[in-house]
Amino acid sequence: MAWSTRELAELTGTTLRAVRHYHEVGLLAEPERRSNGYKQYGVAHLVRVLRIKRLTDLGFGLSQIAEMGDADDHPEEALRTLDAELAATIERLQRARIELGLILTQAAPTDLPPELAAAAKKAELSEADRSFSVVMSRVLGSQSLQAYAELLQNAPTDPVFQEFDDLTADADEDMRRDLAERMAAPTRAVRAVHPVPDVGEDSPLGRRRAGETMGKALRELYSTAQIDVLIRLEKEIEKLGPP
Predict the structure, then answer these.
(1) What is the 3-state secondary structure (H, E, C) of 63-108?
(2) Which keywords has UniProt assigned to this entry (predicted)?
(3) Residue 23 burial (CB < 10 Å; 0-12/13-18/19+)?
(4) Domain boundary among 107, 126, 158
(5) How many domains does the chain have?
């Protein structure tokens, strides 16, 4: 008994298009044709299509199935490889669900990892600070990221820091110097409890690239006046000495 292409598709629970595609990519041998030119499929074709469908349902791609050939009914190595890939996918999806749960329950920002999301929300960061935190999430290693999150969560609430956010690029030198001087004490107090992490210590980018990335982010996110204040701030903190 022979089946037409449509009948083969129905028997195997697939589609005409799929059967034709299997022919095109060399997975399914061409059958003999009747005198009227129509294809006539036999049991071997039925078994082959059912095997292809079974393997694709398991998660194999057509190129992987092609590599297996049609003689091996138990491709152990390929099955173990696929099992490891599926395990990694499941783990990634489980992590994603956990992160989604945190985002939904805490109304946390979606562009930050869980370690920073809650801290960033509590700190009420400016747009520039938040963008800088996104960059930092890619620059810092796990330990430094945790330290940075603690630093954000305990960011000083002194109104002087709002002045820094609002500082315009044309701020004169006296204004910048005064702002740096007033920011020094509250900044030092927070750092005493939550030291600034050494960015290069565990950065996945390495010390040099981490520094370059941070520098580029600072230059593009903050005005020249704000960067000048940050430079002056470090000098003012040095003048104050240990807390």
Answers:
(1) HHHHHHCCCCCCCHHHHHHHHHHHHHHHHHHHHHHHHHHHHHHHCC
(2) DNA-binding
(3) middle
(4) 107
(5) 3
What residue numbers bound the domain in which 146 lies?
A: 110-240
Q: What does pLDDT average to in each consecutive run of 10 residues of the chain (243 residues)?
A: 88 93 91 84 92 88 82 72 87 80 64 69 77 85 83 78 91 94 90 79 87 92 94 91 73
Cα–Cα distance, 230 to 199 (Å, whole number): 17
- Based on the number of CB atoms within 10 Å of its own CB, is 78 exposed (0-12), middle (13-18) or buried (19 or more)? middle
Which residues, at least 6 apart from 28, have a Cβ–Cβ distance to it below 8 Å?
19, 22, 45, 48, 49, 52
Do 35 and 65 form a contact (C-beta atoms < 8 A)? no
If asked whether residues 59 and 89 sit together in one domain, one would say: no
Residues 220, 210: Cα–Cα separation, whole Å: 16
Token pair for 5 = 């292409």
> Using an 8 Å Cβ cutoff, are 180 and 195 in contact?
no
Query: Model-level pTM?
Result: 0.56
Collapsing DSSP to helix, strand or coil, 206 comes out as: coil
